[in-house]
Description:
Layout: E1 2-7, E2 22-27, E3 30-35, E4 55-57, E5 59-61, E6 72-76, E7 82-87, E8 99-100, E9 103-104
Antiparallel strand pairs: 1-2, 1-4, 2-3, 2-9, 3-7, 3-8, 5-6, 6-7
Amino acid sequence: xxxxxxxxxxxxxxxxxxxxxxxxxxxxxxxxxxxxxxxxxxxxxxxxxxxxxxxxxxxxxxxxxxxxxxxxxxxxxxxxxxxxxxxxxxxxxxxxxxxxxxxxxx
Length: 106
């Protein structure tokens, strides 16, 4: 399953110096999100493995995320590892951990 990368490098708020260091993943109306309940800090920059056409190949998973989701996937990083992501509507439901749709990049 491919998701299009919405890069803030293309259009970003020039008054926010960090805006160009964020990306979001979208397919149709679905946005993916990071969630700290998945075992990592959303404040740590990641380096997403992006295809030449601006898409990202996700590995769809089932039952690996410890809460109900519409979609869960592994997001590949350039170092060969991956992180778990979920749909935005399922992320951040307990209000104790952070979540992010605009992911901080290196």
